[in-house]
Write a structure and sequence with these properties.
about 475 residues; mainly alpha; 14 helices; about 80% helix; about 0% strand
Length: about 475
């Protein structure tokens, strides 16, 4: 059975990789669900496939609330573990995070359920597509509290350095979901054909089953406990979780919102360009899985070491992660330069689409290291309770650089201008993130700080500084 890891001792490279490596498998598994839904529903007809296109940005934006909450839970719990808090108080804080996740999930799911009709009508969904969307969103909203809770349970495992357990939960969700998709969508034996609604029901069943398994697992490892005073310190717990979780939720919602606006710029070139852009971004998402895994891994490492006042280790972890992003990103650039055309052909539906996708991948592939530095740096700052900084970095990349440059670029150079805008935003984000890491004492030698003994670090968890522009 996977065990806890003390991330404050031993080689820092092993600490980062031990948490990040299992998450690669988990993230790949999660992405497979979206691909499976698109494949199975696409075989039903154009309306069902179009519904997937409308659903993706909305469900992604709502899910960012749960992702943000899990980031807040990871930061608060890993810092508490690092500074050596009593195990029962850490378990109590995890219980508070879980309860908050359920409440947030119920409220958010209810609001989205009520807003489904007008929301998707405003996005331009026609009557037939809207019928498919309603069939999906009703069940999706019902199961959203389970998703929020499951992500929080995953955060609890990662905070303890037990990323393997988190990855197993993520993989089990995907496996159950993908297995149930064809059964519930098309029907089987006595099971009726449920169509688009069947995809959402499959997702809900997978979420509930995996959440139940995760809760039992976490309880057996004493990560969660119900003691005689379960609500003791709940205000302080929620304050620590929300001060990271709220900005992190906004940060996660920024990217899909920005991509929707950039897609509008691409749409001025026609539907073929939009299809090519979509194919390219699907390839890009899969290529970035190791980077996303690193962003999941760096948080617990920085959080535990910051809580333990091991500043030097936290700084070296960030430097190592940025270096990995650079090396992987450049290798990715070479691979995409060589294989962009065949990869585009796999994900595109026509030769014209593939041509646009190839152009994008060959330009942007060389700069994906910059996006990696951004997301891993954001995760490190969240773990260091500087989530407002990470939100600002994400906002700046999208709305100060990418969106304006995309609209200027498309009017000047066509689709090549879109690719150039993405590349420029990625590189600029990497440079800015290095400066941000220095400003927040997450870069080796920043502000002359040296590693200090436990208990002496400034603005340690429990007495976080809220002065100056770096208050998070």
């Amino acid at each position: 059975m996977p065990t806890d890891r003390d991330l404050t001792t031993g080689p820092i490279t092993r600490a980062v990789l031990s948490v990040s490596a299992p998450m690669s498998v988990g993230i790949f598994a999660v992405l497979s669900v979206g691909l499976a839904d698109a494949y199975f529903l696409g075989r039903l007809g154009e309306a069902q496939l179009a519904a997937v296109g409308f659903l993706y940005p909305v469900t992604t934006a709502v899910t960012s609330l749960a992702i943000g909450l899990s980031a807040g839970a990871t930061a608060a719990l890993s810092q508490a573990i690092g500074r050596g808090d009593d195990r029962r108080s850490v378990a109590r804080m995890a219980l508070h995070a879980l309860a908050f996740a359920v409440v947030l999930g119920i409220v958010a799911g209810g609001v989205i359920w009520l807003a489904t009709g007008p929301l998707f009508a405003a996005l331009g969904a026609g009557r037939e597509v809207a019928t498919e969307i309603r069939a999906y969103m009703g069940w999706w909203c019902v199961s959203f509290p389970a998703l929020a809770a499951m992500m929080t349970v995953n955060a609890v495992f990662r905070a303890h350095g037990n990323a393997a357990s988190a990855a197993i939960i993520m993989t089990s969700v995907a496996a159950v979901n993908v297995a149930l998709d064809p059964v519930l969508i098309y029907g089987f034996g006595s099971i009726a054909r449920l169509g688009t609604g069947g995809a959402a029901i499959a997702t809900g069943i997978a979420r509930v089953l995996s959440l139940a398994a995760g809760l039992i697992w976490a309880a057996r490892r004493n990560y969660l406990s119900w003691d005689t005073a379960p609500f003791r310190g709940i205000g302080r717990s929620l304050r620590r979780i929300v001060e990271v979780g709220l900005p992190a939720a906004v940060s996660n919602a920024i990217n899909p919102a920005g991509m929707a606006i950039v897609t509008g710029a691409v749409a001025t070139l026609g539907e073929t360009a939009v299809a090519g852009f979509g194919a390219a971004t699907r390839v890009q998402t899969l290529a970035l899985v190791p980077v996303l895994a690193l962003s999941s891994g760096i948080g617990p490492v920085v959080g535990q070491n910051w809580g333990a006042a091991q500043v030097g280790r936290a700084q070296r972890a960030v430097r190592f992660t940025f270096l990995l992003c650079l090396v992987y990103g450049l290798a990715l650039g070479v691979l995409l330069a060589v294989f962009a055309e065949p990869l585009s052909a796999i994900f595109a539906s026509a030769i014209g689409d593939a041509t646009y996708a190839t152009t994008y991948l060959r330009w942007v592939g060389w700069t994906l290291f910059g996006y990696g530095v951004l997301v891993t740096g954001n995760a490190a700052m969240n773990a260091r309770s500087r989530a407002v900084w990470s939100m600002g970095m994400s906002l700046s990349r999208i709305f100060v650089l990418y969106v304006p440059l995309a609209w200027i670029g498309v009017s000047v150079a066509g689709f090549a201008g879109i690719a150039a805008a993405a590349a420029t935003a990625n590189v600029a984000a990497a440079v800015a993130m290095v400066f941000a890491a220095r400003a927040n004492r997450l870069w080796p030698g920043a502000l002359g700080l040296a590693e200090r003994p436990k208990g002496t670090i400034e603005d340690a968890p429990g007495q976080l500084s809220h002065t100056g522009p770096t208050a998070g």
